[in-house]
Amino acid sequence: MQNALLQTRKGSKTMATTSSASPPLSAFCSPAITIVDQNNASTISTVHQDIIETHIFTRLDGPTLASASCASTHLHALASQENLWTDICHSTWPSTTSSRVRHVISNFHNGPRSFFSDAFPLTIEPVSFGNSSENPPDLPTEIISAVDIYYKKEQIFSKVVETETVSAWFKCSPFRVDLLDPKEAVSTRIPNPDKDDTCRDLEEDMELSWIIIDPIGKRAMNLSSQRPVNVHRHWLSGEVQVKFASVVGGGGIGAATELVQCGVVVTCGGSAKGEMHVREVSLQLEDMDGMYLNGRESLVMLRRGLAGKRRRGKKRESERKKEVEEFLERKRERKERKMRREGTLDTLCVAFGVSAFASSLLFLLFR
After folding, report:
1. Which ranges form a coiled coil (predicted)?
2. Which site in 57, 69, 218, 250 is 20 to 30 Å from 231, CA atoms measured?
3. Closest to 22 (Cα-Cα) out of 103, 116, 119
4. Cα(164)–Cα(143) distance, integer angstroms
5. According to the 3-state scheme, what is the secondary structure of 134-158?
6. For the whole model, what pTM was predicted?
């Protein structure tokens, strides 16, 4: 027995560390986990691969499956099966079951595995293309929005919308993606918020995912904060606006587009049955001056986010909420500086006018 233990310990000291063959998948691995090969009889490889694939891996979510794949080259090979990641994408975002989205995902470098590594992280380091007035390379000619809304972990809304981005009308008009027509409404099981407690329930229990997909560039990113950053009930109409947001950077330092907020608004209204209907789901991009970006400007910012590096982290929601709070603080400071400058200019203009009037009056008196 002692000899067996000594051999086991000796074998554990001779583990060889190698790098992951798939960078997108290893991005989810904990820094403490590395891929190892162990030439020892008592390893996970002794478990039949059918058991691992059908009874273990099918019960894992995406980040857990990615971490498990970093444990050994054997598990990495098993965890790279396309059907596993297809099922995870469909269970995480039901909108990906759309035939159009399925076809686009199949063209990604590693299929659904690459799509998940793009769309799951909420923290993005955008790529800068220099001056925002210049034309960055490879602007998307089409964007696809795959949106899912949950209330208390149950899906209440799912839709896929395709938006063309090449027309002059799109590039010059304010950028806005609406998922519902003005008179369209989707019934839900959310109770009508007769009390403020229901608004707090929406803030705690509603979740949203808005994935922007570039079918030509084969990249995707999630623009939602997942949890609401603000819930507001209109005092007159009684409609409730639930806002989700994220921040994309990359504009010139000091420019209004240095940080841009991608805001998603979900408007819910009451019905005769006492349940709420979803009446609006829209996306707009706002700069630090409070101006909404047009189509071309929005494409530039979205392109920066799509090409950016994803940062891993467990506190996904809190990090994105912190980014939104930083954006609002920077926006407030920028507005205050602008008001001070305008106040100084107004004072100078008044002083100049008074001086000119006094000079004219003295000239007339002593002429």
Report:
1. 314-341
2. 250
3. 116
4. 7
5. CCCCCCCCEEEEEEEEEECCEEEEE
6. 0.78
